[in-house]
Write a sequence for this structure.
């Protein structure tokens, strides 16, 4: 990761806003890293108080034992994209296409009734406590990975690519907390080579993949922060600032080790 570049007061408004967002992202990284020390000791991630969460689902859990009052609207997953075929129940998982591993991805969301009640009451603290589909303030996409016998063998958490620009700018920082979920030490990380046309954002380029085996699970955490080919701060054709044209994301996938190595 490299840092650099500043923008003066004379810069165009769009450029100032973009660099401010990038500065917010780096500040968020520092805050998440600080929080990760606490998370590593606690072995959990912040979330809805007292409600079942995706990391509470242990490998081997039968789909019939999932908390369907808390995990709602199951549908076929699309690996970070929008939900696919609605299922009605996790027990209909076989309607989803099997991945090369043999597992089927089932998207779901947390029940958000408490959040709606808090918003109706205009209670900021209650909203923050009950906000359903976020991890460390970032909107996320959740899915379970289910084997042919109907048992959950892993899950995915992916930051939402449709979040607002200023929020999504710091999405890649959540990878620090994902790793802390399984302990800060013992990760094997690699910095991936930029593909053709991938360039730093304000002097910073992040394209990292980390792996670890912990608690009987093979865990992969990825973080990305850069411009994709054709993306830039300023549109070369119009000379105007672009909007939400960058890659900033984090994802975590876990799969039971005995399944992952078959």
């Amino acid at each position: 990761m490299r840092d650099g570049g500043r923008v003066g007061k004379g810069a165009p408004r769009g450029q100032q806003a973009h660099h401010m967002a990038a500065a917010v992202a780096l500040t968020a990284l520092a805050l998440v890293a600080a929080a990760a020390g606490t998370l590593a000791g606690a072995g959990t991630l912040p979330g809805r108080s007292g409600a079942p969460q995706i990391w509470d689902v242990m490998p081997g859990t039968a789909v019939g034992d999932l908390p369907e009052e808390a995990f709602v609207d199951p549908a076929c997953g699309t690996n970070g994209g929008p939900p696919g075929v609605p299922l009605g129940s996790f027990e209909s998982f076989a309607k989803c296409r099997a991945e090369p591993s043999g597992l089927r991805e089932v998207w779901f969301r947390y029940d958000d009734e408490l959040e709606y009640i808090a918003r109706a009451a205009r209670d900021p603290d209650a909203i923050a406590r009950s906000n359903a589909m976020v991890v460390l303030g970032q909107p996320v996409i959740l899915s379970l990975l289910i084997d042919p016998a109907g048992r959950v063998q892993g899950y995915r958490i992916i930051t939402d690519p449709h979040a607002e620009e200023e929020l999504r700018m710091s999405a890649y920082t959540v990878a620090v907390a994902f790793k802390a979920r399984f302990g800060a030490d013992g990760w094997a990380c690699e910095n991936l080579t930029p593909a053709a046309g991938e360039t730093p954002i304000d002097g910073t380029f992040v394209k990292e993949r980390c792996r670890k085996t912990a608690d009987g699970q093979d865990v992969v955490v990825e973080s990305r922060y850069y411009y994709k080919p054709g993306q830039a701060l300023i549109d070369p054709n119009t000379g105007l600032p672009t909007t939400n044209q960058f890659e900033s994301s984090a994802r975590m996938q876990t799969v039971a080790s005995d399944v992952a190595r078959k």
Observations:
- The first helix runs from residue 13 to 42.
- Residues 13-260 form one domain.
- The mean pLDDT is 82.
- The beta strands are 61-62, 71-76, 104-110, 134-135, 138-146, 151-159, 188-191, 206-214, 217-226, 247-256.
